[in-house]
Amino acid sequence: MWLPCRCTSKTIVTSYARRVFKSYFCVFGRWKCDVAALMPEAVGFEGVKDCSSLQEFSVSNSASFWAAAARHRLSWIKPFHTVQDCDLSLGRIKWFEGGQLNVSVNCLDRHVDTCPERVALIWERDEPGSEIKAAPGDDMSPRKPVETAWREKGDCVTIYMPPCPLAVASMLACARIGAAHNVSSTVITVNQGVRAGKVTELKRTVDAAVKDCPSVQQVLVAMRTENPVTMTAKDMDMEEEMLKEDVVCEPEAMDSEDVLFLLYTSGSTGKPKGVVHTQAGYLLYAALTHRYVFSYQDGDVFGCVADIGWITGHSYSVYGPLANGGTTVLFESTPIYPDPGRYWEMVQRLKINQFYGAPTAIRLLLKYGDQWVQKYDRSTLKTLGSVGEPINTEAWEWYHRVVGDGRCPVVDTWWQTETGGICITPRPSDPEIVPGMAMRPFFGIKPVLMDTEGKVVTSNPASGALCLAQPWPGMARTIHNNHERFIETYCQPHPGYFFTGDGAYRSKEGYYQITGRLDDVINVSGHRIGTAEIEDVVNQCSAVAESAVIGYSHDIKGQGVYTFVVLKKDADDQEADLSQQLNNMVSKNIAKYACPDFIQFVQRLPKTRSGKIMRRVLRKVVERDLDGLGDLSTLDDPAAVQEIIQGHRKLC
Ligand code: WTA
User: Fold this and answer.
1) SUPFAM superfamilies annotated for this entry (predicted)?
2) With a 6 A CB cut-off, is 388 part of the ligand 1 pocket?
3) Which of 112, 321, 600, 634 is most open to solvent, judged by the fewest CB atoms within 10 Å of its CB?
4) Measured from the CB, is residue 412 less than 6 Å from ligand 1?
C-alpha cells in the first residue's frame, strides 16, 4: 500500500478508518456522530452532537426542529408563518399555518425535474416476474393520470383499488386538485382484483355500495383484468376519460391544514371512525420517518408489502417514499403465492433494500422452514421492518437470523392510523436493538406511561397506558364530522396528552415494549377490528338475541376471533346453519379476516347486575385460565360461567 511519507501510520489508519467508516456507516445510517451526514437541517441546533442529543433537541425544541425539517424536506408554494398552534387538551392541532404547498408536486414534479429516469413505482403484480416499472416520464407513471384527471377542488373521492400504479395516480390526482380521498361523490375502482391467482369482483362490490349512496355521482372503472363488467349509467371507463383530458393540470395551492385524506379505522364502539389527516404535517412526518427509521438512501428500492388501503400503505408505500424521491414497490400478491418463497424471490428479483411487513406473515412463513428463504439471494437487504402488531421473540429472531442473515437490523415499528407515521421504533443506527421491543421514540415524540390513577409513571421499569405528551406534525387532526368523538377518544382520557389506547412496558433501560390494546379492539393478522363491530353484524341476524366477541391468542394470526352467541328462544335447533350464515354476514359486512374462528352458542352471557357483559371472564375461559377467573361476586348469575366452560371444552 502506498503511504504518504509525512503521515504517521497512526494518522493514516485513523483517517482511512474514518473515511471507510463514514462512507460505510453513512450508507447504512450508522454514522452517529456526524450530524451533517445524519440530518443536514439539524446543523446549528444548539447542543446537538449526535443522534441522541438530536432526539432530545427535537422534543425540547419541537418547533425549531420541525420548522427546519419542514423547510428542508418539503417544497412550499408559500412559506408558513406559524410552526405550531396546538393544545392537546382542547383537541386543537395545527401545523405550518400560513403555508401552502401541493402534495403531488412534492411527491412527483420536483423529482421528475431532478431525476426523470428514476423508477418511482414497481408494480409487483400477482404473477411473479410480471412486474411493471414506472419512471415519472413513462405512460404508466402517475404523472399522466394526475395531469389528466379531475379538476374540482373540494370534491371527495373514494378509491377502492388494489395496489397498482393507477391507485397511486388516483391518490396523487386527488392531492393535485385538492380533493380529499375517501368520502365521495366520485368512486374510483377496477373491474376485478387479482390476488393469489384468484379474481375478486371489486366492481360488483362498488355497484352494491353505490346503490345505497345517492351522493355518488360517478364511478371511474379501470381495467385490471381483461374481463368486461356490466357498466351502469354512473360508470365511466377510467382510461378513456383520462385520454379526453388536457395533459396539463396546474397543482392547486393547498393550505397546510387542508384535508389530504380520510381513513376509516376501528375503535371500541360499533362504528368505525374516519380519521382525518392533513397536507403538510402528514407528508413531512411520513417522509422523515421513512428516511430515518429504515435508513433509506437515494437509489434504494423500498419494499413495503402492506395494502395501500391501510395507513401503512399510505405512509410507506406511497407518500413517504415518493416525497423522498424514492423507488417503492406496490405488492399485489400474498406471502405464499405461488409458494412460501414469494417475498424472498421478489427481494432477489427487484433487489429490494428495505423490506417492511407484518408479523403475521413472518409467523406463517417461519412454519414453512428456512429453505424457502435460503433459496434466494437477499444480499441487497439492509433493514427489515415489522408493523401492525406485537412481534413475538421467535418470529423476530427468525426474521433477523434467517431472512436478514443476522446482518440486517430489525425495526419493530409501533404506530397507528391516528399517528400518521411511526412513533416508537429502534433505528438501524441504534447501538442495541432488543428483540420484540419498539424501543425508542422517533424525533419529536415524547411517550409517557400513565398509571391506573391517571398519573405519569416516572420510574423504570414500569407498565401503564401509553400516551404521547406533545403533538407532532403527523398526528390525526379530527374524526370526520365528529370532533367531539376525537376529543373524547384521544384527548379526554388523560387531559393534555394524546391517549393511544395501547398499554406498554418500559424497561429499566427506558426501552418501550407495546403490550396490546387496553380497549375492546383486537388485532387479527395485523388488521385492527373493534369487537363491537363484529357483534353489531352478528346481532343483525334475526335468530340472534345477543353476542360477545373476544380476541384470543392465535399462533399465526396473533389474535383469533371467538364469538359467543345467545339465540332467541325459538332458534335453538338451527345452530349448524347459523354458524355458516354468521360467517357469511361478517365476511360481507366487514371482511373475511374478521370472521369468527369459533362460534359458541350459549344460553346466556355472564353479566354484572347492571347488565354489563363480563368480557374478562369470557377471556379467561377461552384462555383456559380458570384459576384466573377472579372475583365473580358481581355476577348476576354465576351458573352462566359453568355452562360456558363446559360448552368451550366441547367446542375446542
Ligand atoms: C397495534 C397500524 C405492537 C397497536 C400501523 C396499535 C402494534 C394498532 C405495533 C394500530 C407494534 C401497531 N407492536 N402493536 N409494532 N404496530 N400495533 O391503526 O395496538 O391499523 O394501536 O395502524 O396496532 O393499528 P392501525
Assistant:
1) Acetyl-CoA synthetase-like
2) yes
3) 634
4) yes
- Residues 328-362: pLDDT tens digits? 999 999 999 999 999 999 999 999 999 999 999 99
Which residue, by CA, sits nearest to atom 3 of ligand 1? Answer: 390
C-alpha cell at 597: 374462528
Q: Report d(CA 463, CA 483) in Å as an integer.
A: 30
Percent above pLDDT 90 for the chain: 71
Q: Tell me the C-alpha to C-alpha distance, in Å, between residue 83 and each of 43, 74, 165, 254.
A: 19, 14, 34, 16
Q: Rounded distance, CA 269 to CA 388, Å?
A: 20
Distance (Å, rounded) from C-alpha 292 to C-alpha 73?
Answer: 13
User: Which atom of ligand 1 lies at the shortest distance from residue 521's CA?
Assistant: 19
For the chain, the first-to-last Cα distance in angstroms comes to 71
Answer yes or no: is the C-beta of 274 below 6 A from any ligand 1 atom.
no
pLDDT digits (tens, 9 = 90+) for 49-93: 888 899 999 999 999 999 999 999 999 999 999 999 999 999 999
The 3-state DSSP class for residue 465 equals: strand
24 pLDDT higher than 50: no
Tell the residue nearest (CA) to atom 20 of ligand 1: 528
Q: What is the CA radius of gyration of the chain?
A: 26
Q: Cα(424) to centroid of ligand 1, in Å?
A: 11
Is there an atom of ligand 1 within 6 Å of 411 CB? no
Torsion of CA 355, 359, 362, 367, to 10 degrees: 180
**Which atom, in ligand 1's list, is nearest to the CA of 310?**
20
- ipTM, 2 dp: 1.00
Of 257, 78, 284, 259, which is closest to residue 174 (Cα–Cα)?
259
pLDDT at 149 over 90: no
Shortest-distance Cα residue to atom 6 of ligand 1: 416
Q: Is 528 in the pocket of ligand 1 (CB under 6 A)?
A: yes
Stated pTM of the model:
0.89
> What is the whole-number distance in angstroms between the Cα of residue 526 and the centre of ligand 1?
7
The finding on whether 353 has its CB within 6 A of some atom of ligand 1 is no
